[in-house]
């Protein structure tokens, strides 16, 4: 279940996965690898900073285009 109340400047795991074009398992893998960091929420419903997610999305898009 996705959290309905989230502070501005943060994304849920579902929103992060949608923005990056990956699944929830992929988001967990990025966290495990240290490429993405949890910025709040709870252990079961983490939040991620919008700035970090958009930077990661741009980096992935740049690498994909090359």
Please compute the radius of gyration using only Cα atoms.
Answer: 11 Å
Distance between the termini: 36 Å
Largest sheet report = 3 strands, antiparallel
Provide the spatial order of strands within the biggest beta sheet.
1-3-2
Return the structural class. alpha+beta
Please count the helical segments. Answer: 3
Query: pLDDT below 50 for ≥5 consecutive residues: which ranges?
Result: none
Based on DSSP secondary structure assignment, what is the total number of beta strands? 3
SS strand fraction: 15-25%
**In which range does the helix fraction lie?**
40-55%
The average pLDDT value, as a whole number, equals 92
Outline of the structure:
With 66 residues, the protein is of the alpha+beta class. Helices cover 52% and strands 17% of the residues. It contains 3 helices and 3 strands; from the N terminus they run βααββα.
Could you characterize the architecture of this molecule?
With 66 residues, this protein is of the alpha+beta class. Helix content is 52%, strand content 17%. It contains three helices and three strands. It starts with 9 loop residues before the first strand and ends with a helix.
Which tags fit this structure?
66 residues; 3-stranded antiparallel beta sheet; globular; 17% strand; 52% helix
